Amino acid sequence: MTNRFALYICRTALSLTMISLVAGCSQFSTKPAAVGFHNLSGHYNAYFIAEQGLAEAEFQMNKAYKENYNELLPILLPMDSVLSLPVKPQLQDAIKKASIVAEKHQNSKWVDNSYIVLGKSRLYLGEWADGLEALRYVYANGKDENDKNNALILLMRAYIIRKDFSNALGVAEYLSQQPLSKASTREFYLTKAYLHQQNGEYLTSVAILEEAFPLLKKSTETARIHFAAAQMYDRLGQYGLANKHYKSVSKNRPGYDLGFYSAMNSLQNEVVLNPKKDLDDVGFDKMLRDRKNADLNDKIYFTMGLLAEHRKQIPEAISYLQKAVAASKGTNMEQKAYSYLQLARINYESLEKFELSKAYYDSALTILPQQAPEYKLVSERKRALDEFVKHYSVVNTEDSLQKLAQMNPAALDNRIDAIIEAQEAARKEQEAKERKAMLAAQNTNVQSVQNPLINGGERRWELYDPALINQGRTEFKRTWGNRPLEDDWRRSSRQMRSLAGNDTNAPDSLAAQTEVIADNSLKKGTPEWDALHASLKQNIPLTEGQMADSQKKKEDALYNLGKIYRFDLQESQRSINTFERVLTEYPKTQYKEELYYLLYLTYEADNDKNTWKNKLFDEYPTSTYARLVGKASDSNLAGSGNPVKEYEAAYALYSKGDYTKALDDIEQNLPAYKGHAMEDKFALLRVFLIGKVRGKDAYTQAIAEFMRLYPSSIYLPRLKEMQELNSLSMGKR
User: Fold this and answer.
1) Which of 545, 640, 642, 668 is the 20 to 30 Å CA partner of 393?
2) pLDDT digits (tens, 9 = 90+) for 62-93
3) 570 three-state secondary structure
4) What torsion do the CA atoms of 507, 509, 510, 513 make, to the nearest 10 degrees?
5) Sign, CA torsion 719/553/675/607
6) pLDDT 10s digits, 235-280
7) Boundaries of every domain in the chain
8) Looking at domain 637-733, does it have CATH number 1.25.40.10?
């Protein structure tokens, strides 16, 4: 009995001891033993695993990230939720493990680090609110100053990615006053340089990077940062400093593509720095012969094209760029898009071949990814060129027809005959080229026919295989239909068979064959020739009514071209030239007052602006456009206000029924925001207000003006509905 009692006492004492030990290791205890236990457990049971999982996920995302060397490389890689999809389980596991430290080891020194891992993982997953909250928690409640600074650096990076440059700059200014460790200083410099790079402040960005490079170890990541610095120096026009960093890329263990593009850009800068340097001596030929560059030949030709254009060698530039297009294959189709864009730009700017430029823009858009930075700009330019080419063709066509109409009848007939002869000559030349190509292809096919018994008869000839005979018969019928059993059954190629020597009556030479075919061509004096002559002549405006219609088409097309230059292509001088051409050729044009207003807006010099303003006031003092110019002059606006607030203020007046005051404010503000994204929104509200204040006639005119001034506005369908409703109501009245 005594032994049992003693055993009970021992067990009770042991239990109480264990309870006291466990209580002493509480996550809320500050005792050394408790803190040590939670430091050890929190580190190796949770934080270490979470950190390793995040590091592995980052490695996989960096590996999957595809650099675009035609664009400015970001100093820091983006936090892209799409890129994180393949590693989502690892990131979620890192969040789960990091959360254990916050939940069960609150007195551990790894709590701040775990929150940073948790916040960073959530940012990668696109959970921005939760990620930012975790980082802000570390800054507000963290115990370790270094961890708080690291959380702020990551928070600044998140702000940059979200384009919140104001908050990012505020964090940067705070961190610049804090004592940072060497590792934190390195990350801070890179993040601040990234901030200025993304904000377009390249000079500040490279200045910060120059301070950061001594802190960076040799690595592939350091190589790409050197490349990014070189690209920014390129944009600043400091090609010597750019080459310094391009050459530093090769000293930092770059990947093959990164090394190739840095070498290419360095060669390009050497040519720019030394204008007398021969392109043949640069080393491009050697790079083209290198088998390792077989899938990068398009980039080499592309660079050669850029250099040729830089030297004003436009034909050579086009040739190189066309070779670049031909060399783009497989996964490198994005480079093909950039080659098309360069060809489009050269044909537009240097050669003024607008239709060809439009075609190249069309080709580029079919390849260029929608997420590419240039996609929206290229899409808008392509849309503008679609309209531009349409009106440009009208101007050229009507101009040519009007010149023909001024010729005397005999000279006109001779001119039309000459046009037909030129067309016929071009057609025959094209047909001759096609025949030569077909003959060459046929000869190649004939020569390539192999012995029916291959390798000692191992493969059966098709005519001995019933299955192959049936298959061939089926394919023949599907392609050619039921044909009679006769020679030269492929009628489209009978001439080819004759040229190949199967026809004993055929001419002996290609020249003779061409002559035989030419005998069947269109001849002057035949009914066919006369019919074609008459059809061409009927398009020429020979009567007064036809000439008036032609002039009207040309006037409208010129007016539309000027507006496309002004609003879509942003080419002020060409728009001015076109507007003034309309006024010169059509002094009584219906667009006269509007053109005065547009010229007033487009000219930059005060003297020129005043000239057109005075014309508008003198000739159309009561017009809407004069009122708009007068309001802008009276208020002395220069577009420095806040368009959103001014629009909201005017709309508030409209909602309250104070239409007159709202209209005055709109007409006062509208000229100041010409070209602004909200301009058509101001103009739309103005249309509504005119309907309330000035009556139906002014309302109808305002709708028409809106449709002329903003042909690509998203509000145009709504205005058309309003116009139809207004027409119906006027009809009923």
Assistant:
1) 545
2) 888 888 888 889 999 888 878 888 888 888 88
3) coil
4) -20
5) negative
6) 888 988 999 999 999 888 888 888 888 888 888 888 788 877 766 6
7) 389-427+508-564, 637-733
8) yes
